[in-house]
Amino acid sequence: MNKKTVRDIDVKGKRVLMRVDFNVPLADGKVTDDTRIRAALPTIQYLIEQGARVILMSHLGRPKGEVKPELSLKPVAERLSELLGKPVKMAPDCVGPEVEAMVAELQPGDVLLLENTRFHPEERKNDPAFAQQLAKLGDIYVNDAFGSAHRAHASTEGVAHYLPAVAGFLMEKELNFLGKALEAPERPFVAILGGAKISDKIGVVKNLLGKVNALLIGGGMANTFLQAQGYDMAESLVEQDSLDTARSLLEEGKGKIFLPTDLVVADAFDADANSKVVSVDGVPAGWRALDIGPETVEHFKSKLAGAKTVVWNGPMGVFEFPAFAKGTVAIARTLAELEDAVTIIGGGDSVAAVKQAGVADKITHISTGGGASLEFLEGKTLPGVAVLLDK
C-alpha cells in the first residue's frame, strides 16, 4: 500500500478528524453487534496514546438527509466508551457552532463522537461547503472506514481536499490484504463468488479471470451461467438479460470457471420447503435451486486443495434457511482448514456465513466492507482511498 498512515505524521496535540464505519445494528437503543466498532479500536487507541484530540465521524443507516432519532449514534458512543474504558463525548450534530465549541474544549487523549453525518443531505452529495464545515473541526484527516471508501461522500472524500489525509490501521490492513491478493498473490490463487446476481459481479468476474488459477461460482448467480449453458433451471432465479454476458464470460474463462454439477432444489422459496438433490440437468418443473449440492462441494473442495490465496465473496445458497446453508457452511469450513493459505472474505453475507459456521477466527482476513471490497476486486479505484496522501 503506497498511502501514508497515521504512523507517518505527527498527531501529538493535534485535532484528528477520523472517519470510522460505525454503521452497526441497533435494537432497543443498544448496539447488537460491535464488530465494526472493535475494528476501529487500534487506530483510536493509537491516537489517544499519541496525545491527539480525537473527533470521530460516521454514518448510520439511511436517514435520507433527515434527523431520525432512532438512527442516532448515541448508543455507539456508549458502547465505544465501554470498549475504550474512558468516556466518549457525544456531539448533538456533526457541524455547527455548538460542535465547534465542544471540539475547542477537547484535551489531548479526549474522544468526541459526532452525530450521524447522513442527517445532512449534503453528506451524500459530497457538498464542498459541508465538507469544509467538517474539515474546520480537525488539523488532520484519518480515514479508517474501508466499508465506506467506495463512496465519494463529504466525510469520506470531500474532507480530504481541505486537510492532510492519511489511512488508519484498519484501512491499511484492508488495502494490504486485498491489494496483495490482486497484485501479487501466492499461487494457486482461487476465487469463490456467490450471491444472487451475476449483474452485480460482472466486473469482478472479468477482473479476476486475468488473475486467478480457478474461479468457483455458486449461489443464485450460478443459475444464470447454467441456463446460459443450456440447462433448464425451472423456477430458479435467473437473470434473463445477463445470459449473453454469462456466455461470453464462460468463453473467456474456459478452463478457469467451475460451476455446480448438482444442486439442492426446493418446491418453494421457503425455509420449510420440500427439498432434494438433483444434477444440474434435472431441475424439476416448478422447483428452484437454493444451494449447491454435495457433489459440487466435493468438486469445489478439490479445487481449493493446495490453494495459497483464496478470496471469497457471496454465499453458495440461501443460507438464511438452515436447509439450504450446507453448501456455504461446507465452503467456510474448507477455507478454515486450508494450511498455509491466505484466506480473505469480503461481503456481509459471506462474513455472516463464516460466523455461522463458527470458523471466523480461522480466516486470515475478514473484510469490513462488502461493497468496497467488491469494487476493489473489480479493479476500481475507491474515492475514499484515492484522496489519501501517497507515501
CATH topology of the largest domain: Rossmann fold
Biggest pleated sheet: 6 strands, parallel
Q: What is the CATH superfamily of the largest domain?
A: Phosphoglycerate kinase, N-terminal domain
Nearest-integer average pLDDT: 95
Shape: elongated
CATH architectural designation of the largest domain? 3-Layer(aba) Sandwich
Structural class: alpha/beta
Overall tally of structural domains: 2
Report the portion of residues in β strands: 15-25%
Descriptive terms for the model:
about 400 residues, alpha/beta, Rossmann fold, 2 domains, six-stranded parallel sheet, elongated
Question: Gist?
Answer:
With about 400 residues, the protein is of the alpha/beta class. The protein has helices spanning about 35-50, 75-85, 95-105, 120-125, 130-135, 170-185, 200-210, 220-230, 245-250, 295-305, 325-335, 350-355, 370-375, 385, and strands spanning about 15-20, 25, 30, 55, 90, 110-115, 140-145, 165, 190-195, 215, 255-260, 260-265, 275-280, 290, 310-315, 340-345, 365.
